[in-house]
Amino acid sequence: MRFLVTAATGTTSAGVVRHLRSADEEVRGLVRDKDTATRTFDDLHGVDIVDGAFDDDVVLAKAFRGVKLHSWPWEVAPIRSGWRRPSSTARCKPDYHTWSSCRASQPATTPPCFVGRLHAEIQDHLAASGLSYTLLHPASFANNLFYKAESVAVEHILPAAAPTGRVAYIDIRDLSEAAALVLRDPTLHGKTYDLSGPDAYTLPEIAELPGTILGHEIKYVPVSPNDRRSALLENGISPWFAELLLSLETSAEAGQIGTVTTTLKELLGREPRTIENFLVENASRFRS
Which pLDDT belongs to residue 118? Predict the structure, then answer.
């Protein structure tokens, strides 16, 4: 069986590719930049790379040829560019497996989670397509804390617009492994999986963790959503992505991404990585 992984050089997708290849599965990666893919997978033989625009029917026809199962992260989901399902996809009718986050099961109009509304819109599009699909709903990625690394390293502060809301951070490595496991096991298909890390923390509690690891106090600084948006924009983050990052904080404060589930542990057959594990392993990113 051949698996197609879209956006294969992305952090999560690259992990999916590696887990599939370690299980001796045939893997094809659809990417925009072949050179990046070659560098990413220079140690993996047997990864078939197709490069080109994701809304090009010729590229998609080549990518989907002979494919049964397809992994498609929400970041490149077709609805965001007004994409229509190409005839090549309709002919081969692959099973779709996609991951999103931030309570995407909510109605697309439900505030305040901007990214969740995008996910819900995409999933509505997928449900109407007639294709078989499986959905992975992880809570906020631990890697999102890297966007606060400079403030932690330079100013010893962690600013955020979420003083009381909890976040059940999930390690992307665990998500990649779980996605590959679900792809390979037909008995796990056709379901929706709500995934989280083993614990949920408030942002003030998160600020205490790197302080312990780094050996000096890290102070949580509460800011308003408007001020947080302005700070992100001043740091050169695009308006669209600034809104996405802000929504992760406002949705945390609204109680939307703090639910801890045992689903990830059940899929992996082991305890998921903790946020403490993540911060210890990446301590250098939070040092000046």
Answer: 75
